[in-house]
TrEMBL record:
Annotated coiled-coil segments of the chain: none
GO molecular function: glutamate dehydrogenase (NADP+) activity; nucleotide binding
Organism annotation: Pollutimonas bauzanensis
All residue ranges annotated as the Glutamate/phenylalanine/leucine/valine/L-tryptophan dehydrogenase C-terminal domain in the record: 190-431
Keyword vocabulary terms for this entry: NAD, Nucleotide-binding, Oxidoreductase
Name under which the protein is recorded: Glutamate dehydrogenase
Record family assignment: Belongs to the Glu/Leu/Phe/Val dehydrogenases family.
Length: 433
């Protein structure tokens, strides 16, 4: 930490992984050799650059762009781009570090990376977003390639932004090779990619509950966030007969005791993706309770799915959820639960899944998008969804294999050890550089 004194999120992510690995490495000392631990926490390469673009009023705007190429040990760098004013080096380094282990867990050959900008797409016109994306790629294109680095979406980066970036990439490289995933269906995108992270999170929660001889059917669920991951987590919950009673955004939470219906969900998706509105407008539309500035964790539920952002569920929230009888917490977002809150869940024997296991469905289907692009084929919805479901089951089994402690499963240890072993083995075989 002396090296990175101003990177609290990165330190938090490294600490969590190292806490899990320590007892494992004491039993398997070969993984402490050849500087594996020192090397695995250091990104292979970081690119930071200026992005200047002209807004609709003719003013020049300047943002900061980044790409963290964390690890290529098991495949090309792979991970999303995030556009949000809070983006900084610490947040992207934590995300790239986590991504490396997550991608290893998917069983697909993908290394880890992450990138983004402090650009805020909110309130910008389509033309401004396009000019910004093009300006970003004018620099980043030289560092990307189908076998080098393949970015995707994340917070603030959806189909629109990926389309603009992939378009400029094609123009500058004079090649149709696929260097983005999450593309539109008309130019190489995969069916089920938009749904994949949310669906996968619920598939994972279902597996945890099954392993504990319970079913998700009939349970009540709180979801935080209202973006891509939240929307499709809600859809899968509805399909499996669970009742979702909350959503939120960065301004507040909506509580709906009657629960989501397919009709309400369609309205929420329309509002968030087409009109780029707020959940407050959604609450008004359906006459629901809206709590400004609040998170949804005080509402009693059986299952909690944090799907918004990092550190949105803190110790006090965890204690409230536990007091209210929560059984299962599966992260759709990356590191939404603070370290103290994670410990509280584990101490209380709650089924708790860290994002690197439970939200890996998104990057897994990105991997399947790359396979389809290489084959020059498009698989059906059923084919992709079946593979996604199988991958989530595999990740669950792998967590159980490495995380079983007596009768219970520590999914944090399971995911960290399983992901680490794959990356470390690849590093050991390829020599020191
Ligand atoms: P979106 O941009 O579609 O949605 C983000 C949601 O989180 C919005 O509801 C947003 O509210 C809320 N949010 C963002 N920042 C904050 C903040 N600082 N405080 C409170 N709420 C906030 O992003 P995604 O749904 O794609 O991503 C959500 C999470 O899932 C992220 O942690 C991401 O890294 C993770 N993830 C995403 C994957 C994917 O495939 N998309 C894959 C794996 C993980 P508002 O509308 O007010 O901004």
């Amino acid at each position: 930490s002396a090296r990175d004194p101003h990177q609290p999120e990165f330190m938090q992510a490294v600490k969590e992984v190292m806490n899990s690995l320590w007892p494992f490495i004491e039993k398997n000392p070969r993984y402490a050799q050849h500087g594996i631990l020192e090397r695995i926490v250091e990104p292979e390469r970081i690119i930071q650059f200026r992005i200047s673009w002209v807004d609709d009023s003719g003013q020049v705007q300047t943002n900061r762009g980044y790409r963290i190429q964390h690890s290529s040990s098991i495949g090309p760098f792979k991970g999303g781009m995030r556009f949000h004013p809070s983006v900084n080096l610490s947040i992207l380094k934590f995300l790239a570090f986590e991504q490396t282990f997550k991608n290893a867990l998917t069983t697909l050959p993908m290394g880890g990376g992450k990138g983004g900008s402090d650009f805020d797409p909110k309130g910008k016109s389509d033309a401004e977003v396009m000019r910004f994306c093009q300006a970003l790629i004018i620099e980043l294109h030289r560092h990307l390639g189908p076998d080098t680095d393949v970015p995707a979406g994340d917070i603030g980066v959806g189909a629109r932004e990926v389309g603009f970036m992939a378009g400029m990439m094609k123009k500058l490289s004079n090649s149709a090779a696929s260097v983005f995933t999450g593309k539109g269906l008309s130019f190489g995108g995969s069916l089920v990619r938009p749904e994949a992270t949310g669906y996968g999170t619920v598939y994972f929660a279902e597996e945890m509950l099954k392993h504990a001889h319970q079913s998700i059917e009939g349970l009540t669920v709180s979801v935080s966030g209202s973006g891509n991951v939240a929307q499709y987590a809600i859809e899968k919950c509805l399909q499996l007969g669970a009742k979702v009673i909350t959503v939120s955004d960065s301004h507040g939470a909506v509580i709906d005791k009657a629960g989501f219906t397919h009709e309400k969900l369609a309205a929420l998706i329309e509002l968030k993706t087409q009109q780029r509105g707020r959940v407050e407008d959604y609450a008004r539309q359906f006459n629901l309770v809206y709590e400004a500035g609040k998170r949804p964790w005080h509402v009693p539920v059986d299952v909690a799915l944090p799907c918004a952002t990092q550190n949105e569920l803190e110790l006090e929230d965890a204690q409230t959820l536990i007091r209210n009888g929560v059984r299962c917490v599966a992260e759709g977002a990356n590191m939404p639960t603070s370290l103290a809150a994670v410990d509280a869940f584990i101490d209380a024997n709650i089924l708790y899944a860290p994002g690197k296991a439970s939200n890996a469905g998104g990057v897994a289907v990105s991997g399947l998008e790359m396979s389809q692009n290489s084959q020059r084929l498009q698989w059906t919805r059923e084919q992709v969804d079946t593979k996604l479901h199988a991958i989530m089951r595999d990740i669950h089994e792998n967590c159980v294999r490495h995380g079983s402690e007596g009768k219970s499963v520590n999914y944090v240890n399971g995911a960290n050890i399983a992901g680490f072993v794959k990356v470390a083995d690849a590093m050991l075989h390829q020599g020191i550089f």
